[in-house]
Amino acid sequence: MKYVDLDAGKIYLDDKDLNGIDITPLIWCLDQQEHIFASDFLSNITVFNASPHEQTLPRLQNLISASKFNSLSNHANCRLLSGGEKQIIGLFRMMLADKDILLLDEPFSAMDTQVSQLMKLHLSNLVDKTIIKVTHDLTDHLHSFDEILLIIDGKLCASGTWQTVKETREFATFHATVS
Predict the structure, then answer these.
(1) Which of 31, 72, 140, 157 has the CA that lies 20 to 30 A from 45?
(2) Contact, 28 vs 99, CB < 8 A?
(3) What radius of gyration do the chain's Cα atoms show?
(4) Where are the alpha helices (DSSP H) in 79-157?
(5) How far apart are the C-alpha atoms of 96 and 162, rounded to whole Å?
(6) How far is it, in rounded angstroms, from Cα 30 to Cα 114?
């Protein structure tokens, strides 16, 4: 997201140096503590109508219960919602933005289990998207990703499919310390 300058190496996107291109139309970043506006639900998820929503919003409504959707959509000030409800708004916002590359930093950490499972399933079924997700949750639908990078204390310890990574000694050691 260009929050910090690289101190070594380069990142390329379609053979173009990331530092030389505008990533705004390509990449969406969803942080664990997503910014929520002191405004209503629709303004928050569309970023004040910057994202078209007429066709996509009805599909997103199916990701949460009707009562939860009604509760969220009737809120006048979404900053007063719970952490998990704010994460739902952030995920809806991301889905309405419809970018090709999605960067997710602990997007389900405050959600209840049922809603997070539905959201994870929805994300794993997206096509033509590159999803990069940071998580500490080892049950986080990791089997649905093409490649897993196990990073411990800032060091790449294992990489490959979920099956490959979870069979490594590094994973076993890491899993034992977080369980």
Answers:
(1) 140
(2) yes
(3) 18
(4) 83-97, 113-124
(5) 29
(6) 20
What six digits make up the tokens of 33?
Answer: 């503590």
* Mean pLDDT (whole number) for 79-84: 96
Q: What are the structural domains of the chain?
A: 21-140 (3.40.50.300), 146-179 (no CATH)
Q: In the block, which residue shows the tokens 């959201």? A: 119
Selection from 146, 145, 142, 147 nearest residue 175 by Cα = 142
92-109 pLDDT tens trace: 999 999 999 999 999 999
Angle between helices 83-97 and 66-73 (to 10 degrees): 90
Mean pLDDT value across residues 24-40: 94
Distances (CA, A) of 100 to 2, 127, 163: 17, 10, 26
Q: Closest by alpha carbon to 99, among 12, 6, 22?
A: 22
Extended strands (E) in the chain: 12-13, 16-17, 27-30, 101-105, 130-134, 148-152, 155-160
Q: List CB contacts of 75: < 8 A, sequence separation 6 or more.
A: 40, 41, 81
- Cβ neighbours of residue 123 closer than 8 Å, sequence gap 6 or more: 102, 104, 131, 141
Residue for token pair 């499972």: 117
pLDDT at 140 over 80: no
